[in-house]
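Protocol step 4 of 5: obtain the predicted structure for the target chain.
Materials: sequence only (see below). No template structures provided, no constraints applied. The aim of this step is simply to have a reference model before the mutagenesis design in step 5. Sequence pasted as it appears in the construct record:
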Amino acid sequence: MKYYLTCLKKYAVFRGRARRKEFWMYILFNWIGLYILIFEVSIIFGHPVTAQSSVNHVACGVGALCYLLATLMPTIAVTVRRLHDIGRCGWWVWFFFVPFVGPITMIVAFCWSGNHGANRYGRPPIEDEIININKDNQPLHLFHIYCLMNHKL
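Step 4 output (structure tokens):
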């Protein structure tokens, strides 16, 4: 949930990099939120999810459309930052629209590990987390550094 809220706060930030975990947790909670919304709207209109009522279908469609439009900008922003993390330009987002090949290629690319070290889009996001954890100048134990560098926390 932390990563989902972070992406919503950075809804128009296209600079920098997003870790794999941040991207996939945002996508996961975005889908969960969408399904909860559809389920709640169908309950509010008094029909089960499987009902054949046209009012239920329209209400669910309108609710889903509003939710997707509200989260469109944060989704594009975190996608661009994820592309930056693997060393690709943000314009690669348009590759999604290539039929069949585009979405599959992008999903595979989003599963790749980010570039180690700084690239032209900035420092790795994990370094920022180390700085944020140690902002009160308390010594970090070697175990914490190991876990952070290996993305275990």
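Step 4 remarks: The longest helix spans residues 20-44. Helices lie at 2-9, 20-44, 54-70, 72-85, 101-111, 125-133, 142-149.
Proceed to step 5.
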